[in-house]
Amino acid sequence: MLDLPRPFLFSGNGGGVIEGNTTEAMICTLIAARERVLRRLGHNSITKLVVYGSDQTHCSFQKAARVVGIDPQNIRALKTMQSTLFGLSPDLLRNAIRSDINVGLIPLYLCATVGTTSVTAVDPLEPLCKVASEFGMWVHVDAAYAGSSCICPEYRKFLDGVEFADSFSFNAHKWLLTSLDCCCLWVKDPNALVKSLSTDPEYLKNEATESKQVVDYKDWQLSLSRRFRALKLWLVLRMYGVDNLRSHIRNDCRLAQLFEELVAKDDRFEVFFPRNFALVCFRILPSAVASMASGHAVENEHGEAWELNDVNKLNAQLLHAINASGRVFMTHTVVGGVYVLRFAVGAILVRERHVIMAWKLVQERANSLLSMSGSNTPHA
């Protein structure tokens, strides 16, 4: 369904395993990468290992890195910019790696993201992988949320370049109608996992494992025993089929596009980040606040029309008012210092009328807040 490159499949000497969540997938691949380097350089080098992501990489990456013994000072969260759609810059990555090497550190692992949590930004996989390969680093692609969309041919482009990575994961429990927990992880080199995570006590030895008749998944994960997660995913695939699962993804994206279009028609708002999937990031514009002050621009002591903090507070108030209605639940993020609201479609019962109702509610609450802002703010 995902059209993954053959080296990730068992038929291409790779393989897949279902982990509980993304953190576990990251921990396992970090351990594999760590042990591959330390077997060569010695375990005393662990304090020199450095891992890289962007400031949009999910916080589970930092947790996973700490769990496997990476010095917190050696966890890099490289800055992204709105001008580059909050994707990690290959040039910035290369410069950071070279700076670390110059002071005696060892680049170990890059976590690239397809569909970041805050705004669903997409890192440029191919150029990032090529930079990482120059320094012998392990590259993991985290597509926890957005990976599900890539079962649709029109969204598969977001995985272009994954063929150069070492591992890839996405969470079927996020958008593929599968209940928690179900994180699908593929690796090109299963032996790297097995060498790092294997246990071989006498009481676990058996002919099937030793003759390679089975894949012993205890050596692909943190725990020794495992739940039958494959059954629920298999049932979803059998029950819906590929066409219906694609329709589910496409319908969610279509409804999100509808909301995005409604936001764009109201000049008091902006779509802060171009929609990639089924998440719309939006906010009230500073100009909308200024225009409510009886037609006069509202300026602060520096002559600027409303400070960013003021606009952020107003958008936070809008979110609170929306959720307090009990009719809609939205979330927020702060990216590039800007507070934005996030409207996500993902539930199977959402219809167009719900999206339209949600937008009308946003407008009603915004009208009230902007009226109060205009009446309570002194003219410039």
Automatic annotation (TrEMBL):
One of its GO terms (biological process) is amino acid metabolic process. The chain crosses the membrane at residues 329-350. The modification N6-(pyridoxal phosphate)lysine is found at K174. It comes from the Eukaryota. The keyword Cell wall biogenesis/degradation does not apply. Keywords: Decarboxylase, Lyase, Membrane, Pyridoxal phosphate, Transmembrane, Transmembrane helix. Its cofactor is pyridoxal 5'-phosphate. InterPro entries: Aromatic_deC, PyrdxlP-dep_de-COase, PyrdxlP-dep_Trfase, PyrdxlP-dep_Trfase_major, PyrdxlP-dep_Trfase_small, Pyridoxal-P_BS. GO terms for molecular function: carboxy-lyase activity; pyridoxal phosphate binding. GO terms for cellular component: cytoplasm. This is Tyrosine decarboxylase.
